[in-house]
Amino acid sequence: MRTDLCERLGIDVPIVGFSPSEHVVAAISRAGGLGVLGCVRFNDADELDRVLTWLDTELDGRPYGVDIVMPGRVPTEGTPADLGRLIPDGHREFVERTLLRLGVPPLGVDESRRAGVLGWLHSVARTHVEVALTHGPRLIANALGPPPPDVIAQAKSHGLVVAALAGRADHARSHLAGGVDIVVAQGYEAGGHTGEIGSMVLVPEVVDAVGPDVPVLAAGGIGSGRQIAAALALGARGVWMGSVWLGTAEYQSTPALRDALLQAGSSDTVRTRIYTGKPARLLRNRWTSAWEDPEAPKTLPMPLQNLLVSPAHDRLMESGDPSVVPMPVGQIVGRMNAVRPVAEVMSELVTEADETLARLAKL
Amino acid sequence: MRTDLCERLGIDVPIVGFSPSEHVVAAISRAGGLGVLGCVRFNDADELDRVLTWLDTELDGRPYGVDIVMPGRVPTEGTPADLGRLIPDGHREFVERTLLRLGVPPLGVDESRRAGVLGWLHSVARTHVEVALTHGPRLIANALGPPPPDVIAQAKSHGLVVAALAGRADHARSHLAGGVDIVVAQGYEAGGHTGEIGSMVLVPEVVDAVGPDVPVLAAGGIGSGRQIAAALALGARGVWMGSVWLGTAEYQSTPALRDALLQAGSSDTVRTRIYTGKPARLLRNRWTSAWEDPEAPKTLPMPLQNLLVSPAHDRLMESGDPSVVPMPVGQIVGRMNAVRPVAEVMSELVTEADETLARLAKL
């Protein structure tokens, strides 16, 4: 199973794998795919610098990518302290009350010094770009539409391929107009920020919208070789997978998160604004249900909602309770039933995709 | 493109097409697929009898099917007048106020004698079964899970294949246990009653749940040959398509409905309980938006909600205004951009599916 995407990115199989873990990213690229490092978790540019140095060494010329979260328009900006003043007291009280009701203890002294995730801030995302360009990524992707024009220009002058996620055909067309090279058509099934159109409908719609010269990757609902073959049938030149790597041995998970992922079925996710202020698919659990209560406050716009819930996320994660972990994941979570090394997952994906193509050839 | 479903149903191509129109059904079967007649619109058993007599003659031995709406559990039953008393005045007032606000005129004297759709009533659905069994359908399907056990037994004693729709793998397993022969895995993208799991995730999940001996049809988001090929890649033995026929020449549409369907994009649908009390995907428009208003009442359970809105549906349809038509349709509506004969649509589906399989064979 090869497509022209393989030549374009210098990879063996048209599987692009997104993960916040450099260990997962390295393993995907070593297995012949393209690992893409999610950068939103890096509050400190020096830490990203160290991780990319490690990846450059580890992969020794094999390609990888970086994914940076840059909203199309520059949103409310400021220091966390400034922004914090924009969060209504009622919201903070609801979060505190909910954590109490769910039996989630406060953090210890060391743990409570965390700053929350700042990567949603535009200024922080820009430092990610600056750092990434001093390293060797082959691709830069933006999870929130097209990167700003100067970032695209800068990335291209460094020889990078620019990718952007799109949940609608008109977004894909405007990405192209902005200079994006590869469109990731991300369907409703996907984990994290996601739109309302299912992959079965969205992928061919985006393929037709961008025309034959622009590679489209299918994202959302891809977790097996049959689904990769289906994506290729729909006209995608490859797939973008995220959720499936959360269940791999290389992903440094907590026991609670691992249990929650292994137990969840495909119905156990929910698309909600509670994570960042924009609709994102998460594991459905006692934490997400609390926000569906008629007495829950309305979610805040990006980046305030994430600043509000970030300290709660730390507490929910540290609680060790699988029924409250705050985790973006796609509907494919129903297929994650065992912890396996990335290499084994990749090998199975390729084998099943090849078998599926062989089966289809006989019809 | 042939699968073992073709032998099983005596058809040339594994395309099953659902329509409330006998003209569409006949054209699908004549083109080598299996047309399935939606029976919910027949308040009068004699009318269904006449239509099936026409189909038997018209198709002269070519197979067709019938789709009957039978809830798994017998719901609130009674005459429309009895049931009408269960509808709160506030709901009736909201509907009346909304129609006024949307500029929808009352019906003329002749038109206002309509009884609304009674096919959602269990007793009416049973008469549909009785009538259908005196004719020659090859397949009987139930849109709301497995048919009642005695209906399955009766249908099988008449040599019919029994199909049931499922939006989750556990539902598919219980259908099998109830004696269903074919499972229609219907994804989130679908029009009408639909679940929350996208086709990309649902189809292989159902295929794995029912095992290799049970044919699965993919429904939801199928409107092109690429999507048929993708469904086959996911392990389906064929497809079940509904929305796409609404845009054919054989479907006797109103100009307003036709305009609304041709103009709508894939984002212009909404999954809501306002049509029947169960979640169903409809065209998104001024009518569906009115029910999202904070002052709109909560929807009623089946069958009360449909009794409430049926007279309004008649008025909305008669108004001639494309921005208010109450119409179940899937996300594939974005692909419906011209009115064409069924035979042309079928031919294009098969050609594109074959081309897709040939393209995949080269990877």
TrEMBL record, chains A, B:
MF terms (GO), sorted A to Z: dioxygenase activity; nitronate monooxygenase activity
Question: Which InterPro entries does UniProt cross-reference here?
Answer: Aldolase_TIM, NMO
Keyword terms, alphabetized: Dioxygenase, Flavoprotein, FMN, Oxidoreductase
* Protein name per UniProt: NAD(P)H-dependent flavin oxidoreductase YrpB (Nitropropane dioxygenase family)
Q: Which organism is it from?
A: Actinoplanes lutulentus
